[in-house]
């Protein structure tokens, strides 16, 4: 159960549009904000695409409920109006600290006192943003994974200043929109998933970069040993190599060497993963 | 195809007996060596158990072929006789450097020139043992995983002195006994599997030990995100917590802290994993 009814999602990019759509799909009134008419036009395209995706990929969503989701989705480029009556604001704007801080300052004044703010930031900690919100007790992170209808974890992470009741409300909200809430008890860069995935992918990359074993053999080993459907290099290709590269490039000396290897042998050759047709494997679709 | 016909397995413990049984099951003549009559009696018990396991778990092995495997398995406690006509010796004795070196010195004199030696050592590098064999060109590592009939990777890892033709023969042999050979191009502590598994399990342990998230939530996250059937803490429980503890205790400062946490909260309370009825989860069977 949740007493959150009206949800505003700031940013209608890949993940912002998914969060907005999933929330509306589950019956909430959602306002999707982006910066100007051009961005909103893109957002309309994304939402139309999501109707189609849900119809095909979400069980039961071909009964008209995917299309009807659009009726609960309002789009606007007026930030103050977007948050003026929101119970919850989920922020999914680009990962630039000053941009997010400015936005929190603006909505901090414009939103009612009751409004909870949640950031979907992958790379910033909520404590980096808490002061800018002007309501650190009603602020926390709610972190989604790409393709939210399928990879439906929602990592919930507060700061030391987050009101436990607010935390609990957001956990309940995550459940209400069909997510599996993953509760973090304190702040951790990378949350749970990237805290596992980054060292896992780095260790795989180190085997290939060091010339110890071929990616396909590394994948085979992992799959046989753990029963997993995907080995680390298949996961690299699904994620796309650019994001792991950026994380490695900002890591320690060992990680930076892996980044250089990834750049030279893959990124610079246009091998970016499944989306580019080739990464560690070739794809012919 | 392989021209290896006669195989001797040194050590009839958990893994040695599995390697010997699997090799005989696939039609090879196998000599299983262990140190004395008492050890050989244990080995007989293990082999009888494996007949039963194969009957139930290996497709097609309930046609009498599991039982018939025993006809191709000879047991002996005479080391020199055990290797006197072997094409391949697979060593799976306890992980004590001096013990292994002594054994290699003895079989180095007793085995014919043609015999290939392979160590199943998990923790030593083959180059630690190569000199003791007296035949470094015909020596390499062939590393199996527990429950070889199911987790059928065989990691093949030579030293700089291993003859490539010998390496190739052992790869072919691994295939011939139903393993998936995983070829390492150079020496790597932990081979492929543990090079992935150790940082993966350590990063999971760090999340729980640091109080960031509960083991069950960590597992849930991994399973949803990657489609894997098992999360890291379920894998801990299957492996048993003692081996990861030993690896952590020999690791860097961070790993040693995790070892201390594992000891205090789990090992010291008798929570050793599935085998003890409880680890990170409780088991009621």
UniProtKB/TrEMBL annotation, chains A, B:
Residues 6-186 form the 3-hydroxyacyl-CoA dehydrogenase NAD binding domain. Gene3D superfamilies: N-(1-d-carboxylethyl)-l-norvaline Dehydrogenase, domain 2, NAD(P)-binding Rossmann-like Domain. This is 3-hydroxyacyl-CoA dehydrogenase. It catalyses: a (3S)-3-hydroxyacyl-CoA + NAD(+) = a 3-oxoacyl-CoA + NADH + H(+). Pathway: Lipid metabolism; butanoate metabolism; Lipid metabolism; fatty acid beta-oxidation. Keywords: Fatty acid metabolism, Lipid metabolism, NAD, Oxidoreductase. It comes from the Bacteria. It comes from Prescottella agglutinans. It holds the Pfam family 3HCDH_N. Residues 190-283 form the 3-hydroxyacyl-CoA dehydrogenase C-terminal domain.
């Amino acid at each position: 159960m949740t007493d959150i009814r009206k949800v505003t999602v700031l940013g209608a990019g890949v993940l912002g549009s998914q969060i907005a759509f999933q929330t509306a799909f589950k019956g909430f009134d959602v306002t999707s904000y982006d910066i100007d008419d051009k961005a909103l036009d893109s957002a309309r395209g994304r939402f139309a695409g999501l109707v189609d995706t849900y119809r095909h990929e979400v069980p039961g969503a071909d009964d008209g409920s995917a299309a009807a989701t659009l009726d609960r989705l309002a789009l606007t480029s007026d930030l103050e109006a977007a948050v003026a009556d929101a119970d919850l604001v989920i922020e999914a704007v680009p990962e630039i600290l000053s941009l997010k801080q400015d936005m929190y300052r603006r909505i901090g004044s414009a939103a009612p006192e009751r409004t909870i703010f949640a950031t979907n930031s992958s790379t910033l900690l909520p404590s980096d943003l808490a002061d800018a919100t002007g309501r650190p007790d009603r602020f926390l992170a709610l972190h989604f994974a790409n393709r939210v209808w399928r990879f439906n974890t929602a990592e919930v992470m507060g700061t030391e200043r987050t009101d436990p009741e607010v935390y609990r409300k957001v956990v309940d909200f995550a459940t209400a929109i069909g997510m599996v809430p993953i509760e973090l008890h304190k702040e951790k860069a990378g949350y749970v998933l990237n805290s596992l995935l980054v060292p896992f992918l780095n260790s795989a990359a180190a085997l290939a970069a060091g010339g110890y074993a071929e990616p396909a053999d590394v994948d085979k080993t992992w799959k046989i040993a753990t029963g997993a459907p995907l080995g680390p290099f298949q996961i690299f290709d699904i994620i796309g190599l650019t994001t792991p590269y950026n994380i490695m490039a900002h890591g320690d000396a060992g990680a930076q060497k892996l980044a250089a290897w990834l750049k030279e042998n893959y990124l610079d050759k246009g091998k970016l993963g499944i989306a580019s047709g080739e990464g560690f494997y070739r794809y012919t679709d």
